[in-house]
Structures
1.
Amino acid sequence: MTRERLAAVQGVELLHEAPVARELALRLEAPVDRVLDRCAERGIAAGYPLGREYPEYEDGLLVAITERRTREQIDDLAEALGAAIASEPGALVGNSATNAPGGS
Amino acid sequence: MSIAETPMQRERARTIFEKSKPGRRAAVLPAAEVPEPPLEELIPARLLRDEPPRLPEVAEPEIVRHYNRLSRRNFDLDSGFYPLGSCTMKHNPRLNERVAALPGHARLHPAQEPKRAQGALELMWLLQESLAEICGLPHVSLQPSAGSHGELAGLLLTRAFHADRGEARTKVLAPDTSHGTNPASVTMAGYEIVKVATDERGGVEMDDLRAKVDDEVACLMLTNPNTLGLFDENIAEIAGLIHAAGGTLYYDGANLNAVMGQSRPGDMGFDIVHVNLHKSFSQPHGGGGPGAGPIAVSDRIEPFLPRPQVVRRESGNGSGPTYDLDRERPKSVGRLRGFQGNFGVFVRSYAYILSLGADGLAEASETAVLNANYLKARLAEGRAGKYLPIAFDRHCMHEFVLSGKPMKKELGIATLDLAKRLLDFGFHPPTVYFPLLVDEALMVEPTETEAKESLDAFAEAIEQILAEAEEDPDKARQAPYTTPVRRLDEVKATRKPVVRQPLG
């Protein structure tokens, strides 16, 4: 459910279509580190930046949702991700599936 | 001899699987707040298992009782005196547990960005600085997670140090009294172990050392005080010999509890030291962890330290320092484990260091040495003095080694029998049959946290066991009588351990 909810956020898409069990990989249309910073300001540790281990997924974010998270918290995460991406100047939200270079 | 079973012996310990009843639950999750589609819609059927896993189904009160009951079948430091030589089973202050359990410490994710883990990194950096001062060596890595892990790290650093100078040395020296992990780590690191003999005073046999030092020697591993509890008086000369031959000097810090604030391995000439935080710096231990074996090193070894390294960076703009993980270390031996180490261990040890302070740590070591010498003197009296003589008769440091050879010859009971009988008196036995060069060895380390009454009671128990052995040696030979299980087949337990739970 989290997967559908987050994939519906503008500027977020799934990194792959394979089935997932307890965590999922997203692609963000804004710099991942900046999005994480903005989410952290709202008290949300949104996920793990995949670029730290996989240079080919510089725009990747790994999100884990456990049984301890409520629907409200998942909604908050979706809202925070959307707001963070929208506030990034380089984000081409709702425009294209490709990730344009920031600031262009 | 007919022996009445105790209630705990009668009760066969059952595993949590044997207590399982279908349908029992410890917790019921709230109903999902979103529609729940069939599992096959989320995960393809071919990836799903055919049957649910056979997990134990037990209600919470039974789970609590199960594990509480198991804990009471163990002997532990909170139950009684635990003078296990070379293990430093000192009291673990409860304050440290409270500090380690603070949510910011206990619930921090290990993959959190350094900028959002500044408090944790600052604590680690301060612990590094404290250990550097205690060891007398300027650089510390907290990565190794056990004493033996620190040893392996030290040997990898030694190899990197020599390789950097274009040398490939092959041998590592260690005294024949060394901890068993020393030769094991040497072999694991791909070096050849060369043992150095012990002299009549219990120190390194200097002529033997001189004969074995050459330009093939990469390192000498030493613990000082050694496993006989004796401080090697020739340490300055030993260090000079090894350094002159181009080798490194490694200090096994397992016995650091004897010398905190008294003498520093760095001042003795050591290049690399590991510190068993779980021994000297108060940590619940035994049973395999978690622990920590940080290493402190000299300037010439520093470039090779594991990465990442916790570093402090001055901001330069007046906003105070920040802390970071330095991954850019081109000569580093690399990573020794996942994440940064057992963080809760760091918190407890740092809390311990802060609460004692420099004076308190020095006093702890003084008291550890005093307690060991008091108990040694008590055990030189009466039957213990006759049947269990001290192996090397001089003032000891934090521990001492007795020999049960006369006891075995004259009373017909072995050190193992005495150790088992001690359990009936409510004491954990000392380390037995180590170090190997002492026949029927008993290695006693009382630590600084034991009261005089505990030490006296232990000495009196040994006296009583020896007195009863004069009348009836079988009593010790069949001991223990009161433990949850009696004498076990230790060889079979090692060779053919039963680790599988058969499910009906």
2.
Amino acid sequence: MLQQLADFVTPITDPFAQMQGHFMQLSTSLQTMNTRLRSQSQTLTTGSGNEGFQGLGAQAFSAAITYYIGISNQHAAVLEQAAGAIQTCNTQLLNAVGVASASNPNVIIVNYVLDRVTLNEVVEQGSTPVEIVLQQLRQTLNDMVQRARAYGNDLAKAGQDFGHAFVDFFSGHFSAAGHDLEQSGSAFLQSWGDLGQFLLDTGEVVWESVFELTAAALIQCAQEIWQAVKTCANKISSLVAKAVQDIKGLETTASQIVRDDPTYMNDVRTKDFSGAINIILQDIINPELKKDGLQPLSASQIEEIIKQQSPGLWQWIQSHPWYVVAIVLVTIVIAVVGTMVVRMFQIQSALSAKGITASKGQIWSLLWQGYSNQQIEYILTVASVHDSQGVTFGKPSKKGKLPSGHGENHIIGVGTSDSAMQQRVGNGHGHPPADTAFPDATTAQQAANYAIAHSSVLQNFIDTGAPDLTVWDTVDIPRSIGKNCYGYVYDPTLPWPHARKIGPPLLRVRIGLFKDASGRVYIFDIYPVQ
Amino acid sequence: MTTLVVPCDLMREIARVMGTDTESLLLEHQERWHQIQTLSASLPTSVQSVFNDFLAVNTPRLTDALTVRQHIGHALSQSADLTQGVDDGLAQGFDELAQGL
């Protein structure tokens, strides 16, 4: 192989050879690691007997692994194809040089051309720059031959200047002429440089054929270099275009590989965590709760607890890729519900020790309203609004009245009509002259629960208050409870019944507890206040 | 109804190997990619651009994919820890319950 031609393509072939190695080895590493990962994943999910990772989390894990290996193998294939394109290009470049070398081109002409053409020009324009240089060279050589002939015709001067060199040159004794010229060291010969040497080497008759043979070899070589690099560049460009398409089609690919529970995976992927949690609840949690007669859970309840108790965890869920969240979400939901179940048993046991019977359903409902174990114990130690309604001071009343420390019967103000409240204010029954009511018994119970859970006065009374006594406290309640509460206060500036409306909302309650002779605690009265 | 089986120790072990392998892949990727970038820069200018495009498109794809692999490993390990925590919590809760009865 002609070293000059080999050197000419070295700026591409050397880097290409190394790049091909890096692409190929990186591709091999990816594929090797992916094979290992697939094997590990199968070991984990199939296991032996019942020891394999099972459940929605396991399905999500398998889907995530399949997803990753799918895209990673695509990347490995792209790297392999890039390596292949580069290797093919290098082979074609070296072939082009080999073919050109085999045609035995004249080294002087080859050097002359390669000194005047860059590899970058050949890569960009093919044989054109080479042909331009060759054309100029052809002209130059022709001129030189003409000038030499002119010298040769003036044999006297030529002989004076160069001895017998030109006589020999044009007589066909090229070797002798060259020798004479070299010996003479004339300025004329030096001005011819390598081209003069070429002409001397080849001679008047054959120089043209040698030149044309070399020119053809160089032109073909340049054309093949151009074609090889162009083909390689096109291949690499197509890989770039494919990569862009892959990125655009990633979501489609991701959804295609999800097999086991596409709805769940799709919900997680689109960050519809409520939808995903609902599926977990429907598939795993709620059927179990139903067996125990417990209220089924909704996604919003789970979300609320996670946000309340682990805001960092909720942020973590929001910020991580869907395929990661898909795996851990199941575990998180089970962890949240599992903790609640344990707490439910703990509370029931603690109440039982105090002689109070509370159903799992009651405890379960309060747990999901965000109350602590201790708060729930206090709430359930006090008789409900409903149960308190039927109790009178000292003995139960058949009329459904509450007890009164002053010997009066007292009805908790639930659902009192608007006109009735105004009448009571106008008739001076309110003491102070005001009357309010809860819109329904559920709201009244919620307000009582909240007040008992947050009032140390009430809790102290529950713990240490003596029988037959009452205790009162005024407690702020959240808007969610007090938003529909309202009533009337006495206002003498207004015409009869002198009732000025207050609320809704009313965001405070006045609550009284009563402990009977046996130590059982009832709600004496509770009503919203301004 | 889904049956849950969570082999925590095996999950942690596989997560650990995934982590080690991913670190190794990331390191190899960084080193080779740097070499390729240097080699690409040494190519004739007309050839450079196509490889620059190739590297520009594929750099985030490869690193993102490896990050996915890393996340899956972390998630697997965290799932094992969370599940273990739930199991321990349940056991502790029932133990306390039994002691209180």
